[in-house]
Amino acid sequence: MKFINLENNIKARLHQSIVKESNIKQIFDLVFENKGISRIEISRITNLSRSTVSLLMDELMGAGLIRMIGERASGSSGRKPIGLEINGERAQIITLSLRKDNYHYILYDIRGGELEKFSYRIVYKKGCAAKIWNTLKSRSSCLDETRLLAVCVSIPAKINKAEKSINLSILDTDEDFDLLKELKSMCPQIPLTMVNQSSARAYAEYKYVYGGKNGDIIYFNIDDGVGAGIMVNGRLFTGEIGHMSIDPKGPLCVCGKRGCLENLISKTAVIREFAARAGEHKNGLLHTLSGGNPGRINYRIIREALEQGDLEVMAAARDIAEKIALGISNVICMFDPEKIVVGGNILELGGTFLSMILARVEIPGINGVCTDSSSQIVGGGIAHDAENLGVLRFFLDRIFTISVETENTIYLGD
Ligand SMILES: [Zn+2]
Fold first, then answer.
1. How many angstroms does the Cα of residue 293 sit away from the middle of ligand 1?
2. Integer Rg of the chain from CA
3. Which of 28, 213, 241, 256 could form a disulfide with 228 if both were Cys (CB 3.0 to 4.6 A apart)?
4. In CATH, what is the architecture of 6-72+81-87?
5. Taking Cα atoms as reference points, which of 247, 224, 229 lies closest to residue 239?
6. According to CATH, what is the number of the domain 90-202+386-412?
């Protein structure tokens, strides 16, 4: 089936100029955030003249992105304002969150409404993108290729924007395997947006939890790997925080240094630590909960042991919480952001563990630097699908500026 390149189609209808682009985006965003808003209200909020709003609105409606939803009641007599909304059916956006051995797919409409989702196992090797694509097509009940506007991918790896490549990934790939090229070949005519996983989560938190307004945020992503998404003055950056060393005598990391956070607090490291303790204490709760097999220990079992208040497990958890707290303190020393959000699958360890982290950060003498800081440290506010939501919103927020890039451009997030 031949794709209709919707983005080019929309692009052709929206004559580009920077001022116009920013005005159009402003109008699109207002309708996106305020279903039922009228042209008059848009004009009032944006300070654009009514005729400019009407002209740009005609273009957005001509491209099928916005539609009318009927007259609204108004307090005064005379013409009633006509409410507007994003035309959700116009376009679909595929989002993929790539994980260590699986991917999480969510299909959204252009309003950000979730159409369907599922996860599937994957081995990152040659031909995997074709496999993903075939799985999506065969398992999906609502993916419509003719309405596909973009493919947005979040990846737990550093993205080199200049070289358009991916480095130092926790994804287990063959050495000469070019994942980026693979993904681009999946739907060659559809723009590919790729954002680092920590950055995608930071962006989702910033936009959905804090309404895009709450100052600077550093999202400390403690997951299969460790990274940071940094929002400063509305701009998104990725921090390679996982390779910040907190122990020069610690275990050797793949990057060549010792004691990197990734080696000490990533999911693999945390489970390894608890499994070792369970192996040492054969009468302990962890050993019992794992059915006598420390190899079976996972976050659910550790959480259960923590909730039961097992002293042995609490002590081990405090050690890990302290390492996380050291990492957070270092970040505060560098940036002193208004908010540090702790997120990633580490939150599966539950509220008891999060409280331990917060308590360790606040202890003067250990991490005394924080006592003078005004940084607020909180747990992530989005329980599920944060990176899919983040990469979707990242794309939607750039829908008109991304379109100035040439066809087949791989758009790499900041
Ligand atoms: Zn390292």
1. 30
2. 24
3. 241
4. Orthogonal Bundle (1.10)
5. 229
6. 3.30.420.40
pLDDT value at 399 more than 70: yes
How many Å lie between the centroid of ligand 1 and the Cα of residue 368? 25
Torsion (CA) 211, 325, 285, 250 in degrees, nearest 10: 130
Question: Whose CA is closest to 117, among 392, 350, 393?
Answer: 392
CA of 155 to the centre of ligand 1 (A): 18
Q: Specify the pLDDT at position 17.
A: 62
**Is 90 exceeded by the pLDDT of residue 389?**
yes
Task: State the residue for tokens 């002193």.
Answer: 336
CA of 66 to the centre of ligand 1 (A): 47
Q: Which residues contact 391 (CB under 8 A, 6 or more apart)?
A: 95, 97, 152, 153, 154, 193, 194, 195, 200, 203, 413
What's the CA-to-centroid distance between 111 and ligand 1, angstroms?
40
**Distance of CA 241 from the midpoint of ligand 1 (Å):** 9
Name residue, tokens 């990469």: 391
Chain mean pLDDT for the chain: 84
- Mean pLDDT score, 43-59: 92
The domain ranges of the chain are 6-72+81-87, 90-202+386-412, 211-379
Calculate how far, in angstroms, residue 258's C-alpha sits from the geometric centre of ligand 1: 7
Cα(64) to ligand 1 centroid in Å equals: 48
Residues 6+ apart with CB under 8 A from 133: 186, 187
**Ligand 1 centroid – CA 257 distance (Å):** 5
Side-chain-side CA neighbours of residue 208 (13 Å): 22
Pick the CATH number of 211-379 from 1.10.287.3510, 1.10.1240.10, 3.30.420.40, 3.40.50.11540: 3.30.420.40
For 252-274, the DSSP string reads BPTTS-BSBHHHHHSHHHHHHHH
